[in-house]
């Protein structure tokens, strides 16, 4: 499955966001401050700006990391904070997208280093390469959909940045230069030269940003298009030439003026990405959105059209096997599921689109997590209901004892059954101490074995007090299985207790080691219930190292870590390959696979499942 940015790029003109720096300035941040450091010190302000651009209709938002390289951070005493600032910049953009519930693409913003290359300055090409690789590696690791290089005036520096990006990973690159009044960069590069050099390096998009205003950018794009009729081009001008009034900076171009030029660039020059640079606001982007509406399909700019006739899941009501998952497991069929985390806000559109994407890839079921890592998200139950009703895919509800009293557990289960959500994964839940809410305590009236007994009791027609609930429920009860447990004997004994309590299937923790998985399954012996294997394809060596060293319960073998380190720019492909190898090796010993794509990269889940075609499933 292709990168989502490249898929959309080939279908329609995309709208990028506007200025970050001038928006921060407008909120009282002085130009002398380090804007990138605000990711750490004033994250709410940065997130709010991202959200305003998403609400205006932007297809792409750029992280607040334009100057987050070691050289630009050094004057602020922050050269050692490159990773933290870029990490938080990506996180804030992802949170804004999740709160909005849209499919907005996130571009990792990378600007020039702020130091001249030799012989004009002190910077060597090697030092420049290392600085770019350091920043880009974190942006890739944290889930950027693409890289947006902008406001480069030195083509040689741009080429170094592109090469560093290609060494670090495989993200699509939008490479944007800025041009002076004579139509050349400050160091004398022409638009034609820029296009030829960047096309040779295989960037996805060549473009121009800043460069004062729309008219000048239009002329530069004309020159670019004249030398190459097919390369995708981006155009993101300033809102005119800035002026100062009463100690405040103003930009003269109106939203209507910039929107008119944006439309012209798409219609006349076949520009594939338009947006704004310095001085542009959400109002400018909103006007561009309106101007471009009739040039693109109805799906333009994150609009999700809900099909009122979309099939809803109809579930029989007599036995546990009557869910689709129950029938497939009873028939010995191999099942596939992909996890979707509910949004941090109340808009479910991105989750629904992810489910549709997985449905198109042939996935059988969608797992919906219950506030993973003890971070507040939309309740998993309504998210399951929305997916089942609007997408037509059966879901597996993660149901935890962490947040519910014994009475609350039963009430929510009855509600889930009434909504047609019948597949339950009974879990304890991540402890509140993992989250960002100090003082919050868990409930834990029952443990997971107790929860299984509660659900099994309902399947027999009674609640925990022995009261008749009428027609028995028909939940299919799933439980967790830690194949990485330090004490496998204890874990296996625990599984047998869950089965005795009424469990129907088990879903495992993440596996990265086929040999250890085999050892665990050998020790388990004859499977008491169907086992569904958990996988999470890693995206890079840094991602793998983070999981190995900082996430409890996840251990990557040395050979996998070595492969990810050697993979370099090919990290995501190797991460998918590792998961495919484990799935292929375990295929005959399990009855399904459950994939947890990090950062919502659903296309990676689909790529892992491609290996099943080779097994003639």
Automatic annotation (TrEMBL):
| PROSITE patterns xref list | HCY
Pathway where it operates: One-carbon metabolism; tetrahydrofolate interconversion
Q: Which cofactors does this protein require?
A: Zn(2+); FAD
- A Pfam family found in this protein is S-methyl_trans
Record key words, sorted:
FAD, Flavoprotein, Metal-binding, Methyltransferase, Oxidoreductase, Transferase, Zinc
**Residue ranges of domain Hcy-binding in the record:** 2-292
Binding-site list for Zn(2+): 210, 277-278
According to UniProt, the name of this protein is: Bifunctional homocysteineS-methyltransferase/5, 10-methylenetetrahydrofolate reductase
What's the encoding gene here?
A: yitJ
């Amino acid at each position: 499955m292709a990168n989502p940015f490249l898929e959309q790029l080939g279908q329609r003109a995309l709208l990028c966001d506007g200025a970050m720096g001038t928006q921060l300035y407008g909120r009282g941040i002085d130009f002398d401050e380090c804007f990138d450091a605000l990711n750490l010190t004033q994250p709410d302000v940065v997130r709010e700006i991202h959200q305003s651009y998403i609400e205006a209709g932007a297809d792409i938002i750029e992280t607040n990391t334009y100057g987050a390289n070691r050289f630009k951070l050094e004057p602020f005493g922050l050269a050692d904070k490159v990773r933290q600032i870029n990490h938080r910049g990506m996180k804030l953009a992802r949170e804004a997208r999740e709160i909005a519930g849209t499919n907005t693409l996130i571009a990792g913003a990378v600007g020039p280093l702020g130091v001249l290359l030799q012989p004009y300055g002190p910077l060597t090409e090697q030092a420049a390469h290392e600085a770019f690789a350091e920043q880009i590696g974190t942006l890739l690791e944290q889930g950027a959909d693409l890289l947006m290089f902008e406001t480069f005036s030195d083509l040689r520096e741009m080429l170094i940045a592109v090469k560093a990006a290609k060494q670090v990973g495989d993200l699509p690159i939008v490479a944007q230069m800025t041009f002076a009044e004579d139509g050349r960069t400050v160091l004398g590069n022409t638009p034609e030269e820029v296009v030829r050099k960047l096309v040779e390096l295989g960037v996805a998009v060549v473009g121009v940003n800043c460069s004062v205003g729309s008219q000048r950018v239009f002329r530069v794009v004309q020159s670019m298009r004249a030398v190459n009729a097919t390369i995708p081009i981006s155009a993101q001008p300033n809102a005119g030439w800035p002026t100062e009034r009463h100690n405040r900076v103003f930009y003269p171009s109106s939203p209507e003026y910039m929107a008119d030029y944006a439309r012209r660039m798409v219609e006349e020059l076949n520009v594939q990405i338009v947006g704004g640079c310095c001085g542009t606001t959400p109002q400018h982007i909103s006007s561009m959105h309106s101007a471009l509406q009739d040039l693109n399909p109805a799906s333009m700019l994150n609009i999700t059209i809900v099909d009122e006739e979309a099939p809803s899941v109809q579930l029989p009501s007599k036995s546990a096997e009557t869910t689709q998952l129950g029938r497939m497991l009873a028939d010995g069929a191999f099942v596939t599921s992909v996890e979707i985390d509910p949004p941090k806000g109340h808009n479910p559109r991105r989750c629904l689109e992810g489910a549709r994407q997985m449905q198109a890839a042939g996935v059988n079921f969608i797992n919906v997590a219950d506030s993973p890592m003890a971070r507040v998200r939309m309740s998993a139950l309504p998210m399951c209901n929305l997916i089942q009703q609007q997408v037509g895919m059966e879901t597996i509800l993660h149901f935890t004892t962490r947040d519910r009293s014994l009475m609350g557990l039963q009430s929510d289960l009855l509600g889930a059954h009434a909504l047609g959500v019948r597949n339950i994964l009974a879990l304890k839940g991540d402890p509140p101490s993992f989250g960002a809410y100090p003082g919050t305590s868990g409930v834990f009236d029952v443990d997971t074995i107790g929860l299984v007994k509660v659900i099994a009791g309902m399947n027999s027609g009674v609640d925990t007090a022995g009261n008749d609930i009428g027609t028995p429920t028909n939940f299919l009860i799933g439980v967790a299985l830690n194949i990485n447990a330090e004490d496998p004997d204890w874990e296996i004994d625990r599984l047998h207790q869950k089965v005795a309590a009424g469990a129907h299937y088990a879903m495992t923790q993440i596996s990265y080691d086929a040999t250890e998985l085999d050892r665990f399954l050998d020790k388990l012996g004859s499977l008491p219930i169907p086992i569904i294997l958990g996988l999470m394809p890693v995206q890079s060596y840094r991602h793998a190292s983070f999981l190995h060293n900082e996430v409890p319960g996840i251990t990557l073998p040395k050979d996998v870590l070595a492969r990810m380190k050697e993979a370099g720019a090919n990290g995501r492909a190797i991460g998918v390959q590792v998961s495919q190898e484990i799935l292929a090796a375990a295929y005959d010993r399990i009855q399904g696979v459950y994939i947890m794509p990090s950062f919502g990269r659903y296309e990676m889940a689909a790529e892992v499942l491609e290996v099943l075609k080779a097994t003639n499933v």
